[in-house]
Design a protein that fits this description.
With 231 residues, the chain is an alpha+beta fold. Helices cover 33% and strands 41% of the residues. It has helices at 2-16, 58-78, 125-138, 154-179; strands spanning 29-40, 44-55, 86-97, 110-124, 142-149, 181-200, 215-230. The longest helix has 26 residues, at 154-179. It is elongated and about 85 Å long.
Length: 231
Amino acid sequence: MKKITLLAAAILAFAAVPAIAQVPAEPATLTAEGTGIVLAAPDIVIITIGVTTRGDNPAAALDANSADMRSVIDSILAAGVPESDVATSNFSISPIYANRQQGDNQPLPIIGYSVSNQLTIRIDIEASGTILNQVVAAGANQINGIRFDIAEPQPLQDEATAAAIADARRRAELMASAAGVRLVRILSVSAYANSNSQVQFLGRAEAAVPIMGGEQAITANATLVFEIAPQ
């Protein structure tokens, strides 16, 4: 009787253990990458403009520099450039030393001081040539660091992203056909876009100082992961 009881308890205990759920197999997948490129002419130019002056002492050099820079800033604002698009990017005061004579090992005397003040401005490319003429006439004696940009890049980035996703889908369909499988559904999508420097020189010359904007390439990349099944 005792053996029968133990056997019945074992059977009941075994029956109480829940069945282990079977983990579904991971679906077969296919990954495809695509690229979208949109070319657009930049409409913004970003330029660094500077004034460098010299004086017998720091105060004299600074006064001369401040006067010229004020004239430069006034000419920029008078051209319709908002103050938010004008920013000081560098300022320095440094001594000017006499030239060393051959055989002279003595410390070089200071013969004056140099003051440099630089602005970075963001201006419409259509007006850039005229504005550059105006700032030079106002006292700017340094212009460098020119680069181009697009004021509203988002619609172009969206267009490039859509093209990249379409390209990835096209590649996926091509690979699936060649491999003898079919695309079931998209499991994941990822994409990003960025703007590159000018890639072609197709701008037009401006009146006054010629400024050529060329074209910029807005590039997007996309990755699609598909579930696949036999045809």
